[in-house]
Recover the amino acids of this structure.
């Protein structure tokens, strides 16, 4: 396929996909300029972009972005490790799962934001309580999805491995784990987006760096364009993380995607 | 030489009846069966007669309550490297390619990757799927999937092959092709096979002996020796001998049915 042809095919798709976003940006630009909204409270995207450029030029944007990214990745790594291990365990042992299910459902509904004061009381204002709030927010979707994934593994696959003489370890690692992988990754992606939400809350209290801090600090010093710049950066962080997690997911579960697109 | 000896095997479950009370349901009772080394034995019987339960017990997937089962003159063990089972639903690992599926049993036995590859190649060739070695199961037809499942079991050369209605989910034409293929493969190395089926024709075509089960309680009712010459080919289906055996089986089952009203369901 020539480049020209490829553009002709993908371009209409790209335009239709970004139509909503483009219309929103246009409305956002126009509204404060013609006085529908006071521009002191809503900076148009062009002004926000300029503020972002200046933040980047001072090196502050990269600093805040990387601090937030680091917190998200540490929190996510801990909850992936803990969530997968606990989820595999509870999914494998039905009796354990049965007695813990109600507790886990209750914990899942317990907002990480509501618990933040508790974490501060227990762990202070430092990095630890920030990591814990991010961990808490993302742990439950990962744990519960992993557990469901393990429970839903087709029993005929396990039975078939047993008749081949497979050990328990083989059945667990080479049958149950890959069979549950698609659901585990769905949980991890959900957990990833909860991490980005939680990092904002964590950085709004007792922090002096990070995108959440940038948003709240700009608001307090009435630097409205930079505040919106921080919000946009958080959206970019969330989208980027989701994109990368999706790429990892695809590389592990490509067989599943082929079924969906192939049949 | 006897490969499997089952003596007075009992198996029951507890189920809730319509009143919600627990009721004892006997699945196997007084079940006796000998399977000889290198024999192709089919087990035929109506739905719910316990034939799959017996197969699962032999496969190490289910327990029995009393009686005795010996395999190679030793008590049946739940874990064994010497058994292979082919399921009606193929039971292929969807995340593995055809070749990787074939190598699963070899992997479990700790063979080196080079060794696994050499063996899987040979068996892929045997079932005519070498060209599909890098396909995933969902990209294959039902008949091809069952070929992979059969090759996967053959690849690690178990002494006892258990087949639970392996061709029941296939269309009639594919089923006939696979029956002949299975005959060819089996006649080449004569492994002991216990084959479960609903189809009397399939049982006659493939087997050395056919064991008929009665239901409630599940036990062996009759065993018929199929003395059709081997190697058997496609044409045997239309032969006079085949028709003769079929007639004999039908009249036998009809007589049994009249004697014992619980026996039936497949006439």
């Amino acid at each position: 396929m020539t480049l020209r042809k490829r553009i002709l095919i993908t371009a209409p798709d790209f335009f239709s996909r970004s139509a909503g976003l483009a219309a929103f940006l246009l409305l956002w630009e126009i509204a404060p300029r013609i006085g529908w909204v006071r521009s002191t409270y809503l900076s148009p995207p062009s002004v926000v972009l300029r503020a972002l450029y200046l933040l980047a030029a001072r090196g502050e944007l990269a600093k805040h972005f990387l601090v937030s990214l680091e917190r998200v990745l540490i929190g996510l790594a801990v909850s992936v490790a803990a969530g997968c291990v606990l989820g595999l365990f509870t999914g494998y042992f039905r009796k354990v799962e049965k007695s813990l299910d109600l507790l886990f459902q209750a914990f899942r509904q317990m907002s990480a934001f509501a618990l933040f004061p508790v974490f501060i009381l227990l762990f202070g204002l430092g990095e630890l309580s920030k990591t814990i709030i991010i961990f808490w927010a993302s742990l439950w979707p990962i744990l519960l999805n992993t557990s469901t994934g393990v429970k839903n593994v087709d029993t005929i696959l396990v039975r078939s491995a047993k008749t081949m003489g497979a050990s328990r370890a083989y059945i667990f690692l080479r049958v149950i784990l890959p069979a549950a992988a698609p659901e585990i990754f769905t949980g991890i992606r959900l957990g990833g987006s909860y991490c980005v939400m939680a990092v904002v809350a964590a950085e709004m209290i007792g922090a002096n760096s990070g995108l959440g801090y940038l948003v709240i600090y700009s608001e307090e010093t009435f630097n409205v364009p930079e505040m919106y710049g921080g919000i946009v950066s958080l959206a970019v962080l969330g989208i980027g993380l989701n994109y990368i997690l999706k790429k990892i997911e695809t590389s592990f579960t490509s067989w599943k995607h082929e079924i969906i697109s192939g049949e | 030489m006897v490969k499997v000896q089952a003596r007075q095997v009992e198996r029951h479950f507890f189920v809730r009846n319509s009143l919600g009370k627990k009721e004892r349901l006997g699945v196997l009772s007084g079940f006796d069966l000998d399977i000889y080394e290198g024999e192709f034995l089919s087990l035929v019987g109506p739905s719910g007669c316990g034939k799959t339960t017996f197969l699962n017990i032999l496969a190490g997937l289910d327990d029995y309550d009393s009686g005795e089962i010996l395999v190679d003159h030793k008590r049946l063990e739940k874990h064994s490297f010497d058994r292979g089972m082919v399921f009606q639903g193929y039971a292929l690992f969807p995340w593995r390619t055809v070749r990787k599926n074939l190598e699963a049993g070899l992997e479990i036995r700790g063979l080196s990757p080079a060794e696994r590859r050499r063996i899987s190649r040979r068996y892929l060739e045997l079932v005519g799927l070498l060209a599909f070695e890098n396909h995933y199961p969902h990209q294959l037809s039902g008949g091809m999937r069952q070929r992979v499942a059969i090759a996967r079991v053959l690849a690690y050369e178990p002494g006892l092959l258990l087949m639970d209605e392996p061709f029941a989910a296939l269309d009639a034409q594919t089923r006939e092709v696979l029956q002949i293929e299975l005959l060819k493969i089996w006649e080449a190395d004569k492994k002991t096979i216990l084959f479960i089926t609903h189809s009397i024709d399939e049982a006659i075509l493939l087997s050395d002996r056919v064991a008929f089960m009665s239901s409630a309680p599940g036990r062996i009712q009759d065993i018929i020796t199929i003395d059709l010459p081997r190697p058997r080919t496609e044409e045997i289906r239309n032969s006079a001998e085949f028709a003769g055996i079929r007639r004999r089986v039908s009249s036998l089952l009809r007589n049994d049915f009249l004697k014992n009203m619980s026996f039936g369901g497949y006439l």
User: Anything to note?
Assistant: The longest helix of chain A spans residues 168-204. Residues 169 and 175 of chain A are 10 Å apart (CA to CA). Residues 73-206+236-262 of chain A form a domain with the MetI-like fold fold (CATH 1.10.3720.10).
